[in-house]
């Protein structure tokens, strides 16, 4: 079991709900992945007030915990408004906070992020900030009241996988007691396993599954990879060595290099 | 047999036709005052079942592959059979490979062939995919021609009519999309533009792949181009948003910079009715047969759905295999 802000979760994989071929395939993928938390965006559906209600009720019927997000928000004000609407629509104080700073790379605007996090934490939200791997920003977010951090490992939807292992290791090392969820940039199950082996608490994905040829099969594969990576982290992996070490003893042979 | 068809969108018109040729006396009741204003009116009119399989399931190809033949036979002259050209900027070449691996019925084209197909795209794209068996039509012209054809066949039309005002029917076909009030349906908002520019000529629908802002443009007559279409989980019919228009125009200019000088003739919004699997359904409830959930595949799938509905009504003994009951290949148990 994975304890996330006092909630016991059976899976360390969090799933986004956008871009699936259909809600039916999304529902099957959620089931196959074993996830117990899905995220959902409100921003683009806001134009007509509650005109997106039908899709949201499909999300509710998935039976998982819901982590609404502020995807697509480019300012503190937009993000705060969207978070408040999300709390009302989904009846949860959890919010994945995104404040986008660059249209092309979808990099978080870390200054706006810290500001919005402070406003929302003061308002009683449990803020899951989508951030970079910058340690100082991470500290500011914790000071603002966040109890969990969601660093990227590469730009959203890029499928590049962990591009800066050193930064991820250092983040894990600096915040041993803070739940760290790698959000954004994972492309394949081995990427998820890799960051879980580093000791990250969970991963959040969307595009890698939703845009796969078979989203349901890919969801299952990611579920297994996340479990494998976590179990490996807890089981003590061998450090690489530069000599061969036979797994079968070679008594009686006279060759020692 | 007297049959009432509710709704004069593409589902209702095709159903009226399939019933009338089987000998039914058909009346079409449409709540709007005229043809148009519905999801069909804002459609692209692409008959592109192979391309669509990038994200759609197998039934869309199975049910849609004969659509161009059907429209051509019913409304001669309305269908243009020139295929679909798919291009991507060099930076997004991976998207072409991705599409190629997920679809069938296409072949690779290089820069020289792109120029032969669409001279105005010369020098802009080095790689593309051609889906040679695909076709397109202009939904508004097709609906007007269809109205004339049905009227000539003796189909009666009541516009601006509450369907309950007409009575005395043996069977009803419910084709009103979102207005049917089916609880399982959701609306998927689509925003589209019609641009007018004499500076671009295209012979076939062109799709521009992009990881974030994919676009299609369908050439219409008189230098007009339908540019579409957004897919938003919302049933709002409110005006096109600034963001959507920027995305559509940005992608159009990426396809050809001359679109930057085009006139915006129209910015329209349609709401596509969709079931959770995004596949259409024909269902019988007592004396009513419902066709719904055509999603973004109205002109593509309506002929097959209309045929199924007509068969349901005319062949009581024989079980009819319905679209949503066929194997859903990509779904695992």
- Widest sheet: strand ordering of chain B: 5-6-4-11-12-13-10-14
CATH superfamily membership of chain A, which one? Answer: Aldolase class I
- C-alpha termini separation of chain B: 42 Å
User: How many separate domains of chain A?
Assistant: 1
CATH topology of the largest domain in chain B: FAD/NAD(P)-binding domain
Morphology of chain B: globular
Quaternary status: heterodimer
Q: What's the shape of chain A? A: globular
Low-confidence runs of at least 5 consecutive residues of chain A = none
Mean pLDDT of chain B, nearest integer? 91
CATH topology descriptor of chain A: TIM Barrel
Number of strands of chain A: 10
* Number of individual domains of chain B: 2
**Mean of all residue-level pLDDT scores of chain A:** 90
Structural class of chain A: alpha/beta
Protein name (chain A): Thiazole synthase
Pathway (chain A): Cofactor biosynthesis; thiamine diphosphate biosynthesis
Family (chain A): Belongs to the ThiG family.
GO cellular component, one term (chain A): cytoplasm
């Amino acid at each position: 079991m994975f304890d996330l802000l006092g909630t016991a979760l059976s899976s360390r994989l969090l799933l986004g709900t956008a871009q699936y071929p259909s809600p039916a395939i999304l529902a099957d993928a959620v089931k196959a992945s074993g996830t117990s938390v899905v995220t959902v965006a409100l921003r683009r559906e806001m134009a007509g007030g509650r005109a997106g209600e039908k899709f949201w009720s499909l999300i509710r019927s998935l039976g998982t915990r819901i982590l609404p997000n502020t995807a697509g928000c480019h300012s503190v004000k937009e993000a705060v408004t969207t978070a408040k609407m999300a709390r009302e629509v989904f009846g949860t104080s959890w919010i994945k906070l995104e404040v986008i700073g660059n249209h092309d790379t979808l990099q978080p605007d870390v200054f706006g992020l810290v500001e919005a996090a402070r406003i929302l934490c003061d308002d009683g939200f449990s803020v899951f900030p989508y951030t970079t791997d910058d340690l100082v920003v991470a500290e500011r977010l914790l000071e603002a009241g966040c109890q969990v951090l969601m660093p990227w490992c590469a730009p959203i939807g890029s499928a590049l996988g962990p591009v800066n292992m050193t930064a991820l290791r250092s983040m894990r090392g600096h915040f041993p007691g803070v739940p760290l969820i790698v959000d954004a940039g994972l492309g394949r199950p081995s990427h998820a396993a890799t960051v879980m082996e580093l000791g990250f608490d969970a991963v959040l994905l969307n595009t890698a599954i939703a845009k796969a040829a078979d989203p349901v099969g890919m969801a299952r594969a990611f579920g297994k990879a996340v479990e494998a990576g976590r179990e490996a982290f807890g089981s003590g992996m061998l450090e690489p060595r530069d000599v061969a070490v036979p797994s079968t003893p070679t008594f009686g042979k006279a060759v020692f290099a | 047999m007297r049959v009432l068809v509710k709704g004069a969108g593409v589902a209702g018109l095709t159903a009226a036709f399939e019933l009338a040729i089987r000998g039914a006396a058909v009346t079409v009741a449409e709540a709007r005052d005229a043809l148009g204003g519905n999801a069909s009116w804002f459609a692209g009119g692409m008959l592109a079942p192979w391309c669509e399989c990038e994200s759609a399931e197998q039934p869309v190809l199975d049910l849609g592959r004969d659509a161009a033949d059907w429209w051509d036979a019913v409304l001669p002259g309305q269908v243009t059979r020139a295929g679909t050209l798919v291009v991507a900027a060099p930076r997004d070449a991976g998207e072409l490979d991705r599409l190629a691996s997920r679809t069938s019925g296409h072949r690779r084209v290089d820069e020289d062939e792109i120029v032969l197909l669409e001279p105005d795209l010369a020098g802009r794209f080095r790689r593309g995919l051609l889906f040679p068996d695909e076709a397109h039509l202009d939904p508004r012209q097709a609906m007007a021609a269809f109205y004339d054809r049905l009227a000539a066949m003796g189909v009666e039309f009541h516009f601006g009519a509450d369907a309950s005002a007409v009575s005395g029917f043996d069977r009803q076909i419910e084709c009103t999309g979102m207005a049917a009030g089916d609880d399982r349906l959701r609306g998927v908002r689509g925003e589209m533009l019609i641009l007018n520019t004499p500076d671009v000529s295209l012979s076939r629908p062109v799709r521009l792949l992009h990881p974030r802002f994919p676009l299609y443009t369908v050439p219409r007559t008189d230098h007009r181009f339908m540019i579409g279409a957004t897919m938003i989980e919302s049933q709002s019919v409110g005006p096109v948003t600034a963001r959507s228009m920027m995305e559509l125009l940005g992608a159009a200019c990426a396809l050809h910079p001359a679109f930057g000088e085009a006139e915006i003739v129209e910015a329209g919004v349609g709401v596509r009715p969709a079931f959770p699997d995004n596949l259409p359904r024909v269902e019988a409830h007592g004396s009513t047969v419902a066709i719904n959930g055509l999603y973004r595949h109205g002109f593509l799938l309506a002929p097959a759905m209309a045929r199924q509905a007509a068969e349901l009504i005319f062949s009581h003994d024989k079980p009819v295999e319905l679209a949503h009951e066929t194997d859903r290949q990509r779904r695992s148990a």
